[in-house]
Amino acid sequence: MAGHSKWAQIKHKKKATDARRGKLFSKLSRALIVAAREGGPDPAGNLALQNAIEKAREASMPKENIDRAIARGAGAGADGAAFEHVTYEGYGPGGVAIFVEALTDNRNRTAAEVRHVFTKHDGSLGESGSVAWLFERKGVVLADGDAVDEDELTLAAAEGGAEDVARDGSTFTITSAPEDLAAVRAAVEDAGFAADSAELTMVPKTTLAIDDEAVARKLLRLMDALDENDDVQNAYANFDIPEHVIELVEAA
User: Fold this and answer.
1) Do the domain assignments include residue 1?
2) Dihedral, CA atoms, 161, 166, 168, 171, nearest 10 degrees?
3) Are residues 117 and 21 in the same domain?
4) Which residues of the chain have pLDDT under 50?
5) Which of 28, 67, 10 is closest to 232 using CA atoms?
6) Does residue 157 share a domain with residue 126?
7) Into how many domains does the chain fold?
8) What is the Rg, in whole angstroms, of the alpha carbon atoms belonging to the chain?
9) Euclidean distance between CA atoms 226 and 217, whole angstroms
């Protein structure tokens, strides 16, 4: 199995500006509302809500904001907006596969906006099922690889139920079945290792190497534009851009 999405690692390292944080909080609130509405407000029996709460906490979202969103989803709030899950599949520059998850209260608006992003950045939307088969749902924990004993980390992760531990530069990527995510994170942290993030994600089964700086730049602009869309919760891609190419793109 291929490693964690390169885009997820790039996003994780991005500086959190006030504008980006505000947009992220809005998306996290939407995810909390939908998870609570679909599975109930008790995270003990609602895995989706557990993960939504964890992501909100990692983003330093205030507890009162989290509680308010859960209450809205459970029907205690005045805002009855009914968000629904939608997905989009397509291709970016270089033939990279892209899978998009969104929560929307207006399918037509979101579809038009996502299509516009793809077209503007030399991509194209595909039909349902065109690229989904290239990804699989996994739990992923990222840990800082500096001054870490790889054997000890691997052992701790395995005891928690992890399927794989891989190193990419200074980051360890620990992969598990979705239902084992919380246990893996707990095992890693109980062993004394810091988990930078833990989330349910779509992991590419295979990756496509992108060594051309111009193609890499177009891809990252496309992914950034998707990330900036209010309705898009997550965008996954199967590209693998070497660190030196990413540095060239960021320096330009």
Assistant:
1) no
2) 30
3) no
4) 1-4, 78, 80
5) 28
6) no
7) 3
8) 18
9) 14
pTM here?
Answer: 0.82
pLDDT of residue 9: 65
* Confidence (pLDDT) at 6: 67
Alpha carbon distance 6, 240 (integer Å): 6
Interstrand relation of 124-125 and 171-176 (parallel, antiparallel or unpaired)? unpaired
| Residue-level length of the chain | 252
**How many CB atoms are located within 10 Å of the residue 90 CB?**
23
Say whether both 185 and 175 belong to one domain: yes
Q: Which amino acid is at 113?
A: E
Residue 1, pLDDT score: 37
Please check whether residues 94 and 155 belong to one and the same domain.
no
Number of other CB atoms surrounding residue 226 within 10 Å = 27
Q: What's the confidence (pLDDT) of residue 2?
A: 44
Residue 233 sits in a domain whose CATH number is: 3.30.70.980
Alpha carbon distances (Å) from 20 to 23, 26, 60, 167: 5, 10, 13, 28
Pairwise CA distance, residues 35 & 73, whole Å: 7
* Same domain, residue pair 150 and 120: no
